[in-house]
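__Protein archive entry__

___
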Amino acid sequence: MKRLVCLLLLCIGSAAALADAKFTEPPAKPGTAAYNAWLGRMFSEVMLNERSQEARVRMLNRIVATDYIQHNPLVPEGRQGLIDFIPVIYQAMPDARFVVRDVFATKDRVVTRWTWTGTLTGPGFLGIEPKGQKVEFDALDLWTVKDGQLHEHWDQFDWPRALVQLGVQGLPQAFVDVANQPADR
């Protein structure tokens, strides 16, 4: 019972933190680990959860370099690629939410570990037909930071879990087995 109460309080605290997440001023000057951690949190927790495209663009203009280098082939290059891609997420999953689990930073890099939840109800996502599929999967983002902005990006998604939850058929059984296990966060 004590463990259940602690878990409930943790969930309430996480939900409250997410609801209170907003774009803030950085806690330190550019070129510091604290500043870069702020950049990662602003991107992965605040900007991704922002419903207004206008507000997202303002944030992206501040924290992402114009010549942003994108190593995810699903997202077009440059800051404009992000500006154009993020609405696709919300069209496909209007209830999408992104919860940051960890942020690690150095003087020139930042890594975030986060969970994406949502329900596929809008136009198809990555060619997958919407049928009300619920998803909850984890991802990692890694950026280099240059001149106080996110400059180069790599990511890793738990695609086996996401694809199984989205109802994609014909995946190797090992993917299905892993995806059906509880997430280990």
Summary: The beta strands are 64-70, 97-105, 109-120, 133-146, 149-157. DSSP finds six helices and five strands in the chain.
